[in-house]
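Table 4 source record.
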Amino acid sequence: MEVKELTLENYHVKIKYMDFKEYPETIDGINDQYFKDLLNPEELGLDVRVHITTTLICRCVGINGGIYLPAGVDWWITEFQRIHLSNIADITRSDAIIAAIRHIQSEDSFGKCIIGTAFMYTVMEFYSKYFLGFDPLFDRFDNNLEKIGKYQEVQFSEAIIKLKKQNLAISRELCKIDKFFKQKADIMGLDLQLHNNSYLADRISKNRNQILHGQNVFLHSEGSLLVLLYILYTYCHYIDKDKLEQ
């Protein structure tokens, strides 16, 4: 029997009917609502998957570090691996990435999690440059030193700033995330002191150095954020695949 795909429009009707709050005012660890109790991942359309991933980043990533409702985040990451990374024909599959995600989800915070998080920084920096038009798997054979040099110097945080200015699905989602955290900070009376006018760019730039130099103990939260961004990038890649391959 064919499963009917849940559209974004029907998703909003459903959560309204179920009185599900995407952005609850409080999280107490007792009466919290989870997407896993509401949705069947097999039924979700691509636009819903993008929306859920963006919502989880805004909903669960603490503005000053940490992950709220980690069970909900782990559920979404696990479902992504089950549906996509278990398919050997899927373009997003990579044994190294699968291992890194499992390391991040492990309880070995000062061993496997450090390795997985550091590796995912590299993956996301590559993925960001790919969205900007650079593919080192092919461009390096073109002997185009000018193009290679242009992108080699671009770091992950810089790539996010550049991506926000593009006409791509990932650009729109990154802008939504930054807008949400700016509003959240204003409500809380916090001055984020954004150097790059981007919450994500500043956070990634700062925490990358702290993690690689052993100064940050919130490794699980940063690893989970990177995996959520990887999932978001992947779904947006599906949307803009034809445009990116031109």
